[in-house]
Write a structure and sequence with these properties.
heterodimer, A: alpha+beta, seven-stranded mixed beta sheet, 28 strands, 36% helix, globular, B: alpha/beta, Rossmann fold, nine-stranded mixed beta sheet, two-stranded antiparallel ribbon, 24% strand
């Protein structure tokens, strides 16, 4: 059989090929593969499968350098989600994915469907989702457009996750002008499963039926994958139709039905119809199973009339699954779906012949030889060259940045830093997310440096956190990549968890630009360094290129989603100080480093200097020491030093629990030789502030692990405030002022947005609850 | 005592309610499918939280027409204990089992946070072991929890002691600041005239274990257990 054009198909011209995002070389490759001219439908299929989003054509060779193995890794990269064993016959499936482009043009639906997609990636592994996280990056909150985006994205995430009933428990939100035109929306989902119930999206068994399940197919989101594979411009407003529309209620039904289906034993494989919809799900399942597949688009349940094969194949309508069932079990599959008021229609078959064939009734509209449609894509090794600007910025001596007059009182600086939206309490965001549904949330948003979710039926818990400081990566990609992993690991260690594995979401600009590809390659190498040193393999993730607009690219932002394991949930440790009278100990050492700091960016508008050094062996010892001390019951609180440095970390330990603030008296005279602002606000890595009732025992453990540990003070009552002595200098801040700065900043900024949001988009003011 | 937890399409706190019955109370607990006409001999009915039918049209508006709701009404009319939690409270109001209605939160935002509520009435199957004025801390997670009722009914609700819970501050005062969703008279939960049906927006089934921050919700479930045994 061979594919022939349909009546009405447009003529394939070089312009049409270019419109589909294929280069002349790629088109030639397609023609050579077919041995003839492609049909319009085939051009559409290849344009989606060979888009950056689906094919990883610029990133694959670099990604291959990442470590992916450990004895407990059950599923590494290449599946819908990674899976690790946590013992007791249980496993955790997790994955992070971007939805940046849709969120930039339609924040509410863009973010909501991002949540929906990642949920499906996890439950198609046979895992019940138990937690969601998200990494958000926005421009400056001074811009009304940014406030509109923040409001829409947060509401979109909340409405979707809340309705499906999966708690959103952690994440990270940062603001910087570099993200002004290109917000980043990365959603992570985590699920649990019994190891033996793990299912893979691998089509198998000649004669087995291919079944479309869930929502009907419409014309929404056509070419979403290609859309996500180009830069944003003014014209993107016109691409709103490429953004899909989510229905979390259907998702909830689909979740329950899919899990029931997997447990029933009637199916062999299941995959989300996500990016590039039916095309990529069917082609990827066939490729993993190394089998042929044939699909009749006429059998696909559609919600609009007159849809062409091209449209049906490329639609990204949400809440749909593709299932390969056991032959003869079709009725059982339909019955399970019917219970949940959902459709199940047989649309094709697994075949012995190694082809990927699409028919419209009897008419073959697309046929590709072989079973490796996705990986037969060309691979690129773009040029990589560091931008001169990055070199210049990194080389700048930031100690010469003149202080502002107000900085004569560092307490002023501290309060301003606590008001920085990147540092300030994210309560305005997190109260919009249901964080307690499913009744397993031991530590939720703001409670600790990572979220802690208990695993029912065991004493175990998992710790979850996302992290990435894009500014560090911008200034030094290799170091920034290492820090992203190290910080995420440190954060899960602070709550008492052993870092286990990561998923990553690599957000960059256009990889064809040498300076962007340099950032990509170097930061992935840095990430690999850290993953090897800390024993946290990569189990999968997602690459999002083309996060740029005519004004430039975003900071290179390789987000890390870390999963850690706590053997005994009673050891889950909070970040804020626990009680008056506890001794405060600093694990790690202070340095002169000030480069890349939030202090420089927020107070001085300077993004320069070398980011802090990352000593990976030191980080490993720190994590080991911390975990030993926590397991021994010696740690009352633990909080790492990150954006804003030691002074901000101490202030957060005092006031982050708004209902029960405390004070502290701290003496940093041991470091009085350091420049004061580097000591207080520099972001040297490998530091954790702990409080304890058993200082001696804790110091002994630190010593045994060769980790520097210094008693720096005592937890006091709130009325004492935060007092920091450095030699002859004493800095005093009132607890109430610190608390007001930390907790008040984001609500104040967003209150200004409320009226604007209503004005811009009345639908956002209403919406579902 | 057997607990029946109704699963509507879109319910997402039904598992949590089952755990409350089985793990916390050590009682049998089963899910009751919305299309069913059989309460399967359950002594206690829980209408759980979630987004039944996606909250499309209006929270709880479609769920009340589910076949099982007819049986739940019969059970309630016979004096059988029923609790509606969050979306279940909305459904119970829509079904006319409880007075009032739940509107969009005053701040227009979904709110997920721990709140403190004060027990106003102990003459119910669900608060029998509480003392009046007792303060309980438990999570809320809703976008449409602003309790409202017409003036005449409010007079009856307040006059007949049908208010079971109010949002209060740390000192136990029903202040405006404590009234997070803008409910009329800080009302967080109400009962029917016989006291066997109670509805509330906060989630007692999420407050059963100190590990998760609060065990204050236990007293509601222990009350119904004690009352049925009595």
């Amino acid at each position: 059989m061979t594919a022939t054009p349909r009546p009405g198909d447009p003529v394939i011209t070089p312009a049409l090929v270019a419109e589909h995002g294929l280069t002349a070389d790629e088109f030639e490759r397609l023609r050579a593969m077919l041995g003839r001219e492609p049909t319009f439908t085939e051009l559409g299929i290849i344009s989606a499968l060979w888009s950056e989003h689906c094919s990883y054509k610029h990133s694959r060779p670099v990604l291959k350098t990442l470590p992916t193995e450990a004895p407990y890794v059950l599923q590494g990269p290449g599946e819908n989600a990674g899976v690790i064993s946590i013992g007791d016959g249980l496993a955790v499936a997790f994955k992070i994915e971007s939805h940046n482009h849709p969120s930039a043009v339609e924040p509410y639906q863009g973010a909501a469907t991002g949540v929906g997609g990642i949920l499906r990636d996890v439950f198609t592994m046979g895992a019940r989702p138990i937690a969601m996280l998200n990494t958000l990056r926005f421009g400056s909150l001074d811009a009304p457009r940014v406030r509109y985006l923040v409001g829409g994205v947060v509401k979109g995430i909340g409405d979707y996750g809340n309705c499906v009933g999966i708690p959103t428990v952690a994440g990270d939100v940062m603001f910087d002008a570099a993200y002004e035109g290109n917000p980043l929306v990365n959603a992570m989902c985590v699920g649990v499963l019994r190891e033996h119930e793990l299912i893979r999206a691998k089509a198998q068994g000649v004669g087995n039926p291919v079944i479309a399940v869930g929502a009907r197919t419409g014309r929404d989101g056509i070419h979403g994958a290609s859309f996500a594979s180009e830069g944003l411009s003014e014209e993107n407003e016109a691409k709103r139709p490429r953004v899909q529309v989510g229905d979390p209620f259907t998702e909830k039904l689909l979740l329950e039905a899919s899990l029931e289906l997997i447990m029933s034993g009637h199916i062999v494989a299941i995959q989300d119809m996500g990016a590039a919809g039916l095309t990529s799900s069917s082609a990827e399942m066939a490729e993993r199973g190394d089998v042929g597949v044939t699909i009749d688009v006429k059998k696909m349940p559609v919600r609009e009339t007159g849809m062409t094969p091209y449209e049906i194949l490329l639609s990204e309508s949400q809440e749909r699954m593709l299932v390969v069932a056991l032959k003869g079990h079709e009725q059982e599959v339909k019955q399970i779906l019917a219970k949940w008021d959902l459709n199940a229609d047989v649309i094709g078959q697994v075949i012995a012949e190694p082809v990927y064939r699409v028919t419209e009734g009897d008419h073959v509209v697309a046929e590709f030889p072989g079973t490796r449609l996705v990986t037969d894509c060309p691979q690129y090794h773009p040029e990589a060259r560091e931008a001169a600007e990055a070199v210049t910025r990194r080389a700048r001596d930031v100690n010469t940045v003149p202080e502002k007059p107000e900085e004569v009182d560092p307490a002023w600086t501290l309060e301003r830093l606590l008001e920085s939206p990147t540092i300030a309490s994210k309560r305005w965001v997190t109260t919009q997310y249901d964080s307690t549904v499913r009744t397993n949330t031991v530590l939720g948003p703001g409670d600790g440096d990572a979220a802690v979710i208990r695993i029912r039926g065991t004493r175990k818990a998992i710790a979850l956190k996302t992290d990435c400081n894009g500014r560090y990566v911008f200034l030094d990609p290799r170091v920034g990549g290492r820090i992203a992993v190290a910080e995420a690991a440190r954060n899960v260690a602070c709550v008492g968890a052993r870092p286990m594995a990561i998923t990553n979401c690599l957000n960059f600009g256009n990889p064809k630009k040498p300076e962007v590809f340099f950032q990509f390659r170097e930061s992935v190498l840095g990430m690999g360094d850290a993953c090897r040193a800390l024993g946290t393999p990569v189990t999968g993730g997602n690459v999002s290129f083309y996060n740029e607009n005519p004004q430039g690219a975003v900071y290179p932002t390789p987000t890390i989603g870390m999963v850690g394991l706590i053997d005994d949930v009673r050891h889950a440790t909070r970040a804020p100080f626990a009680a008056e009278g506890h001794t405060i100990i600093l694990l790690g050492d202070n340095t002169t480093e000030l480069g890349g700091s939030e202090y420089l960016a927020w107070i001085h508008g300077v993004v320069a200097g070398a980011p802090p050094a990352c000593d990976l062996q030191g980080e490993r010892r720190l994590i080991d020491a911390l975990l030993a001390a926590i397991a021994a019951g010696h740690v009352a609180s633990a909080h790492d030093c990150s954006e804003g440095g030691l002074a901000v970390a101490l202030a957060e330990c005092c006031v982050s629990r708004e209902s029960r603030p405390l004070g502290a008296q701290v003496d940093l005279s041991a470091w009085s030789a350091l420049p004061l602002r580097a000591l207080l606000f520099g972001e040297a890595q490998g530091r954790v502030v702990v409080s304890t009732a058993k200082a001696d025992a804790l110091l002994a453990i630190a010593k045994a692990h060769e980790v520097r540990a210094t008693v720096i003070g005592m937890v006091r009552s709130a009325s004492a405030g935060l007092i920091i002595t450095v030699g002859t200098r004493t800095i005093r801040a009132k607890t109430a002022s610190l608390s007001e700065a930390f907790h008040g900043a984001l609500p104040r900024a967003m209150q200004r947005a409320a009226a604007e949001v209503v004005e811009r988009d009345p639908a956002l003011a209403g919406g579902t609850r | 005592m057997k607990f029946g937890i109704v699963s509507f399409p879109g319910s997402n706190c039904d598992d949590d309610a089952v755990f409350a019955a089985t793990e916390t109370l050590g009682q049998p607990g089963v899910k009751l499918w919305h299309k069913s006409h059989d309460l399967e001999g359950c002594d206690v009915i829980v209408l759980p939280g979630g987004f039944s039918y996606g909250d499309y049209l209006r929270a709880g508006a479609i769920a009340r027409f589910s076949p099982i709701m007819r049986e739940v009404a019969v059970h309630a009319n016979r004096g059988g204990p029923v609790i509606g939690i969050c979306n279940g409270f909305q459904i119970a109001c829509e079904a006319g089992m409880l007075p009032g209605a739940l509107m969009r939160n005053a701040g227009l935002q979904f709110l997920s946070m721990p709140v403190t509520i004060r027990v106003e009435n102990t003459d119910t199957r669900w608060t029998a072991l509480c003392h009046e004025g007792q303060r309980l801390t438990m999570p809320i997670a809703h976008g449409e929890g602003r309790y409202t009722v017409d003036a005449a009914t409010l007079e009856r609700v307040e006059g007949e002691g049908l208010v079971v819970f109010r949002y209060v501050d740390a000192k136990g005062e029903p202040t405006e600041a404590a009234n997070v969703n803008g409910s009329l008279d800080n009302i967080a939960g109400v009962r029917n005239a016989s006291g066997n049906v109670v509805g509330l927006m906060p989630h007692p089934e999420r407050a059963l274990d100190p590990l998760l921050g609060s065990a204050d919700g236990r007293v509601l479930f222990e009350s119904v257990l004690a009352a049925v045994h009595a």
